[in-house]
Amino acid sequence: MSQFSNEWSISESVYHPANERTGGTLFCIGNGLMGLRGSYEELGTKEVQGLFAAGVYRKSIEQQFCIADTFCRKKYIFDEELMPTPEEMYLIQNLPDPLYCKIWLNGEPFRMWDGNLLEYNRTLDLKTGVLHRTVRWDDGKGNITSLKFRRFCSMDERHLIAQEISITPENWSGEVKIESGIDASLNNEYAESVVAETPAGLTLKSEVQGGAVAFQCLETRLHRGASIPLEWDSEIKLRRYKKIATVRAEQGKTLMLEKFSTLYSTQDETPQEAAEMLVKKAAAEGFSQCLEESSRVWKELWEQADIRIEGDSESQRKIRYALFHLIIASPQTDSRVSIGAKALSGQGYSGHVFWDTDINLAPFYQWVFPEWGGAHVRYRHRNLADARAYAASEGRSGARYPWQTSIGGFEHAPVAITCSRTQIHVTADIAYCALRYADISGDFEWLETDGAEMIRECARYMVERVEYNEEKDRFEIHGVGGPDEYHPLTDNNAYTNWLTAYVLRRAAALSDDADERFQWMDIAEKMVCPVDEKTGLIPQCDGFFDLKDSWEITGSDWGGPGAEYHECKGLKQPDVVLLTVLLPQLFKEKYLRANWDYYERFILHGSSLSPSIHALVAARIGLMDKAMDYFNLSADFDTLDVNKDTWAGIHIGNFGGLWQALAYGFAGLQVRDGQLCTDPHLPEQWKSLSFNVWYQGTQHRIEVCNRPEAEPVLA
Ligand code: BGC
């Protein structure tokens, strides 16, 4: 289990093979263009190792999984008529592992699980994105060696990975054999071949199913103090492409190895040449120089992204870990791709992009790195044609955005899963996200062109889903689910209805067509958006208050015969509570409080997206103990492996929510009448909370303090 060790790092000091999968995620590094899991150089497995490039997906016809194996699933989740259906989709591709490096010390293979591991430490330096491992190892025959490993994905040259390995025999002299290479043995979804070779390097070309081609170029340098020329042998064995050298090591003297690998794909221009050029440049500069350049960029990123929590170094460490992942998740200004539910840290959710990106993640980028925030809405706009086709396939006009997607904008979710088809709020979420991007960034040029086109198309689709109830002279939406997946098929889900009404109003202001404007405003006015004005309470959907208040859990959330959440009030994740966060101009404290009080007792946090939103609301209404409990649950979600699935990748949407909890919740950041303002609620131990945001082209430093006499500062 990893632990935070100081304000700028996480580390672990116990090695156990059983932790390798989770460690692969927790110690993942990257730069938004690629993600590299925290595997060990000497040997990994398919679930530990991982190199992912943004946009490199394989195309596949999948026989969709058929897991309607429980009462609940059969009754509520799957439509067995539609199952099993082979469907075309893209899945993020795990590429050949460039970290591969095996070492023999005096004839014995270095393996932490053999011999005696005298010391072990693995530390991820959040400031520079460097992963360190230090080991003292006894081969079981009394030969002790100290080994140090460092690696980073450059933030400066974002196609570059650099590794450094130092080997110091403590009490022996003898031979060290090194095998440095690329391991392509763990996946079958690509066909690889060596397309160029130099004595210490090679270029591997991997043709991924469905069209993508990745080029990885490798160069290994050995130094013994000063650089020495070496003879390398080549070997290809079991799809491991290796360069092999044997050298003599002297007791107490350090042998240094530097390894550079580059990754380009057919998304890039002249990828093979680019990969070869960059690797040569990096090898000529050396590890330290490359690190310096990467660290310089990291410094600039941290200057913008860091959140300072004075008085609580544990919370400080936690938020930095979250920010680190938010930074390495972003494709930055590249709008051809966006951030999947696990970013580039694992294969969970196949690298697919969900509504999480628009609702949970986007605020961080929109406020902190507006250009990166802009890239995401542009990505959504790029996929407008597919969204139109989705709506058309239902015989509807406008654009329907899919539940999960990738580089292709079509629906990747198994058609038989009810909630993927009923969560039409995704379309409203995407329009909402585009509007918020424009509001925060001030990029009205985009809003009035591509943004307007996309928002209007979303509005047209939502209008198609609205039904007029003549008797009551109101508009309703039937057969949908909100974010809470435990109630996937309901009428008048409050989240969907309110958000649709909001989007229609704003879309009307972007339309030149008077009839359309009138229709959208009329629907927005008469949409069923029930709220008890006296108490502020909002029903999640029709009939929600009549569901059972308690339930017996006899199995897993979806599974056990007693876990019939659909017939009771158990919630997977916030629905109404999230709604109150999204529309702060409508929902003031009374509504936040009423709905928090009512719904919090039913929340099961079956989704990682849940705790941060609870932290946000608890802080806003001044429930500071609760706010801190939820802050910690969210911040520790992966480090404590709360849902037992961290091995499949980081829960990046959770970290986006955590940023919102701090900004909107603890600092109470809001825009009122075009002005930024704060309404801080800080836990007692926090002296101050400060961070940077951009608002309509101007940078602001937000600083809120916990001293009663201190006024919030907005610079
Ligand atoms: C959540 C969804 C989310 C998905 C991907 C599910 O468990 O319920 O709301 O979009 O995970 O993160």
Automatic annotation (TrEMBL):
Glycoside hydrolase family 65 C-terminal domain boundaries: 669-704
Protein name: Glycoside hydrolase family 65 protein
Gene3D superfamilies the UniProt entry points to: 1.50.10.10, Glycoside hydrolase, family 65, N-terminal domain (2.70.98.40), Maltose phosphorylase, domain 3 (2.60.420.10)
An individual GO BP term: carbohydrate metabolic process
Residues annotated as domain Glycoside hydrolase family 65 central catalytic: 320-660
GO MF terms, alphabetically ordered: carbohydrate binding; glycosyltransferase activity; hydrolase activity, hydrolyzing O-glycosyl compounds
InterPro entries (UniProt xref): 6-hairpin_glycosidase_sf, 6hp_glycosidase-like_sf, Gal_mutarotase_sf_dom, GH65_N, Glyco_hydro_65_C, Glyco_hydro_65_M, Glyco_hydro_65_N, Malt_Pase/Glycosyl_Hdrlase
Record SUPFAM superfamilies: Galactose mutarotase-like (SSF74650), Six-hairpin glycosidases (SSF48208)
Domain spans labelled Glycoside hydrolase family 65 N-terminal: 12-266
